[in-house]
């Protein structure tokens, strides 16, 4: 088997080794259940470091291609159903039957504004228009443009942030294109990029977002077509970019005039940080997505997309062959919500409540010696010595958390869990005790303490 693996590897990087072994598994030459040689054996056969092979193996484990069985070794996994191959599906694996679900990453329903008044005001049939009417209500477009962090050449409304990312990816990406993303990144985005056949390159982050020097290396290392990023309340780390960081990143991207920036401002009005966009510096090559799911209601299924005409026109034209437009009735509801002073006050109160919940949980963890990322949004990024053991430890208390591995493009130093702190209205001290116990090195049983954040984390 060692000869089979070494003979298939042309590129001796971790990515190249993982790709070669994946091809052997897909073709059936490495059958399900086959025991793989040890990391050191493969490293010796390829003439690379064991660290390189370990990274390749971890990528294959994240993809579900292989699995470890402790001291018994590493084995080729059996065939997975299509949904089980998705990173997104891995987020829900630990939540089954647990009474307290902090794995979801969704807003607290009690902090969302009521739709009753808006529905009564606009539910009179006035929105029943023609297929030839503009896809965006003129009044809503006016309000959206006033809120936009830079003047977009075109603006449209689609069915949520992921719909926006899907449609932009479909318009600008081709099979094999290199795409830069944050590491860690949102699992459904990674699933989407994999589905379109993109080659994904992760770029390290710190507390202000993508690290400029790391972005420069990535830009120089490949001819990337696009950069996907979250400017505020990054999911899962909570990092938010400021204007100085945006300016630095825009300056780096001057070296790649062909590259399109796609920003997913998924947290919207519940983000504590002010709106920021690389579109202020690169308006002709920045697509900005503004979601209203977490602030005004996930079931509105609405997000606005603004950017250069050549991208937005392609998105709008393709939609004409499908849904045509997003519900103008729901657009009318959103317009009413965005212009109602009472709703504006409710959303501001929700933003403050989420900030208080994050701070309370983060501070209680800090009192126990655990530093977690929780600077914005509704999530907390908790470093743990061993992801699986930490999940089991929390499950014993009836708590479900999201595993960190599906968020990672390439492995980070140390394991993590994502905790939806925005759903924790009280009992922060008690919960922090459980989380700190899960983050303790004794949970792993090895005595090793590794609470490292991604490289450069401040």
Produce a short descriptive summary.
InterPro entries: Aminotransferase_I/II_large (IPR004839), HTH_trans_reg/aminotransferase (IPR051446), PyrdxlP-dep_Trfase (IPR015424), PyrdxlP-dep_Trfase_major (IPR015421), Tscrpt_reg_HTH_GntR (IPR000524), WH-like_DNA-bd_sf (IPR036388), WH_DNA-bd_sf (IPR036390). By secondary structure, this protein is α/β, with parallel strands linked by helices. 40% of the residues lie in helices and 14% in strands.
Structural overview:
The protein has about 450 residues and is of the alpha/beta class. The chain has three domains: about 80 residues, Arc Repressor Mutant, subunit A (Orthogonal Bundle), CATH 1.10.10; about 130 residues, Alpha-Beta Complex (Aspartate Aminotransferase, domain 1), CATH 3.90.1150; about 210 residues, Type I PLP-dependent aspartate aminotransferase-like (Major domain) (Aspartate Aminotransferase, domain 2), CATH 3.40.640.10. Helix content is about 40%, strand content about 15%. It has 18 helices and 15 strands. It has an eight-stranded mixed sheet with strand order 4-11-10-9-8-5-6-7, with helices on both faces. Strands 12-15-14 form a three-stranded antiparallel sheet, with helices on one face. It has a two-stranded antiparallel sheet with strand order 1-2. Strand 1 and strand 2 form a beta hairpin. Helix 3 packs across helix 4. The longest helix has 26 residues. It is globular, with a radius of gyration of 23 Å.
């Amino acid at each position: 088997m060692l000869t089979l693996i070494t003979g298939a590897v042309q590129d001796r990087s971790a990515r190249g080794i993982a790709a070669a072994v994946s091809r052997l598994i897909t073709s059936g030459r490495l059958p399900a259940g086959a025991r793989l040689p040890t990391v050191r054996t493969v490293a010796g056969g390829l003439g690379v470091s064991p660290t390189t092979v370990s990274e390749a193996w971890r990528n294959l484990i994240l993809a579900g291609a292989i699995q470890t069985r402790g001291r018994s070794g590493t084995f080729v996994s059996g065939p997975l159903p299509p949904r089980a191959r998705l990173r997104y599906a891995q987020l829900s694996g630990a939540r089954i039957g647990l009474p307290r679900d902090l794995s979801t990453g969704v807003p607290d329903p009690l902090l969302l504004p009521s739709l009753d008044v808006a529905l009564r005001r606009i539910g009179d049939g006035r929105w029943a228009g023609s297929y030839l009417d503009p896809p965006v209500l003129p009044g809503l477009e006016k309000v959206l443009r006033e809120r936009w962090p830079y003047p977009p050449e075109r603006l449209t409304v689609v069915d949520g942030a992921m719909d926006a990312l899907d449609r932009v990816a479909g318009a600008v990406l081709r099979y094999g294109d290199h795409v830069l993303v944050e590491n860690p990144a949102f699992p459904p985005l990674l699933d989407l990029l994999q589905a379109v056949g993109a080659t994904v390159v992760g770029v390290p982050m710190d507390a202000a977002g993508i690290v400029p020097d790391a972005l420069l290396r990535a830009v120089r290392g490949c001819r990337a077509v696009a950069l996907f990023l979250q400017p505020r309340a990054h999911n899962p780390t909570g990092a938010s970019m400021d204007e100085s960081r945006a300016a630095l990143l825009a300056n780096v991207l001057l070296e790649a005039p062909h590259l399109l920036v796609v920003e997913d401002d998924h947290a919207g009005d519940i983000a504590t940080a002010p709106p920021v966009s690389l579109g202020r510096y690169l308006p002709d090559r920045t697509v900005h997505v503004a979601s209203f799911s977490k602030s005004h209601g996930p079931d509105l299924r609405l997000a606005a997309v603004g950017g250069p005409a050549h991208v937005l026109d392609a998105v709008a034209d393709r939609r004409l062959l499908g849904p045509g437009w997003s519900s103008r009735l729901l657009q009318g509801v959103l317009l009413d919500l965005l212009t109602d002073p009472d709703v504006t006050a409710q959303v501001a109160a929700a933003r403050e409540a989420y900030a208080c919940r994050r701070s309370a949980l983060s501070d209680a963890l800090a009192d126990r010696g655990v530093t977690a990322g929780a600077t914005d949004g509704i999530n907390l990024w908790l470093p743990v010595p061993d992801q699986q053991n930490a999940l089991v430890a929390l499950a014993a208390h009836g708590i479900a958390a999201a595993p960190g591995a599906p968020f990672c493009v390439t492995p980070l130093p140390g394991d993590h869990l994502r905790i939806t702190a925005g759903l924790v209205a009280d009992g922060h001290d008690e919960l922090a005790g459980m989380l700190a116990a899960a983050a303790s090195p004794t949970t792993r049983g090895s005595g090793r303490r590794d609470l490292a954040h991604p490289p450069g984390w401040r």
